[in-house]
Design goal:
By secondary structure, the chain is of the alpha/beta class. The chain contains 24 helices and 22 strands.
């Protein structure tokens, strides 16, 4: 003989039972695996059917400003006035640059071929040509090339349907309205001239459909911006990496190349514009400086002639050279100040730095003027006039030199942007990333399955041990394991009408499988009942429960069979006149039972039926009446129970659920012993407690409980655990 015992400790009420959660996952491992496998298969299908996205990239460098030999360059460099990287990034993302790319590549014209749902793109990528059954779809090798597409503003953003026809013709529809017919290579006008369309190429079978849309320029720019990205490599490197995503790798490379060229061109134009502005300013100063130089020379010559050619001493010549140098530098600063005045306000740092430099030179000139005051009057006058001539002459020469420089700079401006890497599309798609996507979706499926199982176990906390029922103050008389033989027996009974000549005579487990563990548990209940009913007022036993489908009828029928097999006379009364099915266990019909007796349509002797088991009789529920509760409250029901008690040693009454109807409370007043059946994993403790309180509120004392359909689960093994004994005779 083999004996197996399994027990486990019981956690506290407020503890998180990790062992039970682990057991729940083991119990639902096949569900978790199924959901995970489903997500994995769906992920594989998704990555195969998803349209691949390709990436084109390019690399440009923005250097410091070059080309302009501008006196402001030194001051700007000291004050960090070079364009920042953020400014260049925003220029690249601007509508000025992207808008020109849209115009150049005609990205505002959208052509979408009609494909088979879900698998059409995959078949085209696989190179599948047009099959015979497909007419509207566009297949591999078929395409539409539009040369011109101009529409009235009212047609912007509205989808048109172009259907290929025979011999290079096509038809244009809006929804189901035909706008007209056209021919490839010819500019056609539709809708009274609101649509101008020229199809350059149309390679498609007769009936193939394309959707064409002329988007607004802003919509096309926004769509391009959503696929375009640019970032600086490193910090303050001035090197920008530009990327563009597109379904067509060649279009991605063309569009990104257009963006880089447009950015380079606008940078050159921006540098050239600065040179042109400086040149215009210098050219406006030349006539005035030339006039001032001529006037200064005339005044000096006239003074020398008047005083008979006065020459300067060495000391005066040294002072003159210093004064001329300072005045020349001041003249340069005046021109720079005039240029800055056009660009900045007086509070700008560039303007303030220039003014500080000018004030310093003016202080130096004042010190030299003090030295000049000590010279003879003639020397002073000649020095002043010579200074005017030489300073003006230097300024004039500088102006001419700068004009020449600006002219050369304007003609040879190359900008400070350099293309390091031309736009190139990467050979493989970047989306979807097949291995990563499959792995991620598989993990998501596993996570969702585990989460569903755990949440379901938390929300559906049916009793899983006798101790949970005993915590409610109700002693447990029996724990009945779930019987596989009973489930097979039920299926056989349900198929009895389909199986000719092999009808099941009896669906009672105690008769068909007397050594089943569930029947052994009911034999233990028989012993417990013997002592529990010694002090009972009668020999009537009510079997009830909180909710339907918990196995009350199974307990009632098989308990009665076990007791009858022990030599007693037992009758089972099906008091559930709504949905009772005690009769199905005996392969009988429900008509002619309790409801007929209570309605005075039959006598008791007529409805008592003998079962195939010796000593076991039963009364079916009868035809479902409209008022079962009222019939049970009548005097005839009480007299019927009295008559059954006199004829049999034990009367087992199977009642409806306590929480569903009031029938159990009515029947309980006529029965000396009441047992509450709860199903493993189905009835929560709170539900059982409510059912007990409801019966007690009606004056019915529940004697004990029965935990039915206990399953061997990992959740109970690692959590509460249960006591289950298998004690079978072995063949030798």
């Amino acid at each position: 003989m083999v004996k197996e015992i399994k027990t486990s400790s019981r956690p506290g009420h407020d503890d998180i039972d990790l062992g039970r959660l682990f057991g729940v996952l083991l119990d639902n491992k096949w569900l978790i695996l199924l959901v995970t496998a489903t997500f994995a298969v769906a992920a594989v299908i998704h990555v195969q059917l998803a349209t691949p996205i390709y990436r084109a990239d390019a690399l440009v460098q923005v250097e410091g400003k070059t080309g302009l030999n501008n006196p402001l360059a030194e001051v700007r460099s000291l004050l960090s006035e070079e364009p920042k990287a953020d400014a260049e990034l925003e220029i690249l993302r601007s509508r000025m640059v992207l808008g020109q790319a849209v115009d150049q590549e005609r990205l505002d014209i959208v052509v979408v071929p009609t494909r088979l749902a879900l698998v059409g793109d995959f078949l085209v990528r696989s190179g599948m040509g047009r099959p015979d059954f497909a007419r509207r779809s566009v297949w591999a090798g078929e395409y539409l090339n539009i040369g011109e597409f101009h529409v009235d503003p009212t047609w912007l953003g509205r989808a048109l349907r172009l259907v290929a026809g025979p011999s290079g013709t096509y038809r244009l529809y809006h929804d189901d309205t035909l706008l007209g017919e056209g021919r490839v290579g010819v500019t056609e006008r539709f809708d009274e001239g609101r649509i101008d369309l020229r199809v350059v190429e149309l390679e498609a079978g007769d009936g193939a459909e394309f959707t064409v849309v002329r988007r607004t320029r802003l919509a096309a720019i926004n769509h391009l911006r959503s696929r375009f990205s640019v970032a600086q490599r490193g910090r303050d490197s001035g090197v920008f990496n530009m990327t563009l995503l597109d379904e067509d790798p060649r279009r991605a490379a063309r569009t990104l190349s257009a963006i880089t060229q447009i950015y380079l061109t606008q940078n050159v134009e921006r540098q050239s514009a600065e040179a042109e502005q400086s040149l215009e300013f210098l050219e406006t100063q030349v006539p005035q400086v030339r006039s001032d130089l001529a006037a200064a020379e005339n005044a000096l010559n006239a003074y020398r002639m008047q005083h008979e050619s006065v020459d300067l001493s060495l000391e005066t010549r040294s002072v003159l050279d210093s004064v001329v140098e300072i005045d020349a530098r001041l003249s340069e600063l005046e021109m720079e100040q005039a240029e800055l005045t056009r660009r900045y306000n007086p509070s700008h740092p560039l303007y303030a730095a220039l003014m500080e430099k000018r004030h310093s030179l003016e202080r130096d000139r004042e010190r030299l003027n003090e030295r000049i005051q000590s010279l003879p009057e003639t020397q002073q006058q000649v020095l002043r006039m010579s200074r005017d001539v030489e300073v003006t002459q230097q300024v004039y020469v500088q102006l001419l030199n700068k004009i020449q420089e600006m002219s050369i700079t304007k003609a040879s401006t190359v900008g400070n942007v350099r293309i390091l890497d031309d736009a190139v599309a990467q050979p493989g798609p970047v989306e979807p990333r097949k291995p990563v996507t499959v792995a991620m979706l598989t993990l998501v499926g596993a996570f969702l399955a585990v989460a569903f199982v755990i949440v379901r176990s938390i929300l559906n906390r049916g009793v899983e041990s006798a101790e949970q029922i005993e915590d409610l103050g109700l002693p447990v008389y029996a724990t009945v394991p779930l019987s596989d033989d009973q489930q097979k027996l039920v299926r056989r009974v349900k198929r009895r009408n389909r199986r000719r000549g092999r009808e099941v005579a009896c669906g009672v487990l105690a008769q068909n499988a007397p050594d089943d563990t569930a029947i052994e548990a009911l034999r233990g209940l028989r012993t417990s009942l013997h002592f529990a009913m010694l002090e009972a007022s009668d020999n009537r036993l009510m079997i009830t429960g909180p909710s339907p489908n918990i196995g009350k009828s199974f307990i009632s029928v098989n308990l009665g069979a076990v007791i009858a097999q022990g030599g007693q006379r037992v009758v089972i009364l099906d008091a559930d006149m709504r949905k009772g099915h005690v009769h199905t266990a005996f392969n009988a019909d429900s008509k002619g039972g309790l409801s007929e007796v209570l309605a005075d349509k039959a006598e008791l002797d007529e409805v008592i039926r003998q079962s195939p088991i010796n000593g076991l009789s039963y009364v079916a529920r009868g035809k479902a009446p409209p008022n079962p509760a009222e019939l049970l409250m009548g005097e005839r029901f009480a007299r019927l129970l009295e008559a059954l008690s006199e004829r049999f040693d034990l009367v087992v009454v199977d009642t409806p659920p306590v929480l569903a109807v009031t029938d159990a409370a009515v029947v309980g007043h006529h029965c000396g012993t009441t047992l509450m059946v709860a199903r493993f994993g189905l009835n929560p403790p709170r539900e059982i407690d409510v059912a007990i309180r409801r019966l007690e509120g009606s004056g019915i004392q529940v004697k004990g409980g029965i935990l039915n359909a206990i399953e061997r689960k990992a959740a109970t093994s690692y959590g509460y655990g249960y006591y289950h004994y298998a004690y079978k005779t072995t063949q030798t």
